[in-house]
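Need C-alpha cells for this chain, all 93 residues.
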Amino acid sequence: MTPFSFIVVVLAVYRLTYLVVYEDAPFDLLMHFRAFVLRVFGEESWLWRGVNCPYCVSFWLSLLALILRQNLFIWLGVAGAVVILFKLLEKEA
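Here are the C-alpha cells for all 93 residues:
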C-alpha cells in the first residue's frame, strides 16, 4: 500500500466512523440502526457500547477496509478529508 492510499483509507475509515457514531445519515438510517440496537440489546450490551464508541467502530471498519480496499474508500477518504477541513475552518471562523 502506498503512503497516499494509506492516508486515503485512514480518512475513509475516519469518515465512516464519524458517520456511524455521531451522524443520523440520509433518511435517519443510522439513527434508526442505533435505536434498534438499543431496543433489542439494551444499554448494558457490548454491541450498544460498541456502536457508540468511535474506537470500537474504527477498529472494525479498519478490518473491512483491509478486506475490501476498493475505490469506495477513495470516495470516503475525500469525504473524511472534507470533514476534517470543515472542523478546522469552523474553529477559525
